[in-house]
């Protein structure tokens, strides 16, 4: 609904701020990462995400688009709500989260308050290949150790197929190593 809000900061705290824009004072929930970037500013632009719940409309603001995109990806994970996503992004920058996912470092995620081993593994599984470093550094962080077979397995699991069934189907395919990920997925689906 709102792509971003730009205006005067009338109140700031590490988790919440009031932003005056167009004569309206918006209450915006923020992460510690955003707070550290805007704490000394009097005016700013926040990229927003509006969550409409049965009992409230809650506005979340982020200092940059990468953090908002990461927040939205986290919301798409079963068991990760807005409060948990905000805690994750308050504890880890999007780059640190990307690194933890790429390196399958569940310990880094488990250090975040409220994240257990199962949730950490689910975050890694579901975000693998979705997070990319948006900065123009000349390099793109890609998942390490992934093969075509592993990529196909992840895709099949994300489609709701049990991991053991997906692994069995992939093993049945002749010359799996020479096929593209898409073709491997198609053949595995036929083999189920």
TrEMBL record:
The RuvA-RuvB-RuvC complex processes Holliday junction (HJ) DNA during genetic recombination and DNA repair, while the RuvA-RuvB complex plays an important role in the rescue of blocked DNA replication forks via replication fork reversal (RFR). RuvA specifically binds to HJ cruciform DNA, conferring on it an open structure. The RuvB hexamer acts as an ATP-dependent pump, pulling dsDNA into and through the RuvAB complex. HJ branch migration allows RuvC to scan DNA until it finds its consensus sequence, where it cleaves and resolves the cruciform DNA. Its main location: cytoplasm. One of its GO terms (molecular function) is four-way junction DNA binding. GO terms for cellular component: cytoplasm; Holliday junction helicase complex; Holliday junction resolvase complex. InterPro entries: DNA_helicase_Holl-junc_RuvA_I, Hlx-hairpin-Hlx_DNA-bd_motif, NA-bd_OB-fold, RuvA, RuvA_2-like, RuvA_C, RuvA_C_sf. It comes from Taibaiella soli. It is found in: Cytoplasm. CDD domains: UBA_RuvA_C. Residues 72-91, 107-126 form the Helix-hairpin-helix DNA-binding motif class domain. Belongs to the RuvA family. NCBIfam families: ruvA. This is Holliday junction branch migration complex subunit RuvA. Homotetramer. Forms an RuvA(8)-RuvB(12)-Holliday junction (HJ) complex. HJ DNA is sandwiched between 2 RuvA tetramers; dsDNA enters through RuvA and exits via RuvB. An RuvB hexamer assembles on each DNA strand where it exits the tetramer. Each RuvB hexamer is contacted by two RuvA subunits (via domain III) on 2 adjacent RuvB subunits; this complex drives branch migration. In the full resolvosome a probable DNA-RuvA(4)-RuvB(12)-RuvC(2) complex forms which resolves the HJ. It comes from the Bacteria. The keyword DNA repair applies. Residues 144-192 are annotated as: Domain III. Coiled coil: none annotated. GO terms for biological process: DNA recombination; DNA repair. Has three domains with a flexible linker between the domains II and III and assumes an 'L' shape. Domain III is highly mobile and contacts RuvB. The keyword Transmembrane helix does not apply. Pfam families: HHH_5, RuvA_C, RuvA_N. The gene is ruvA. The lineage of its organism: Bacteria, Pseudomonadati, Bacteroidota, Chitinophagia, Chitinophagales. Keywords: Cytoplasm, DNA damage, DNA recombination, DNA repair, DNA-binding.
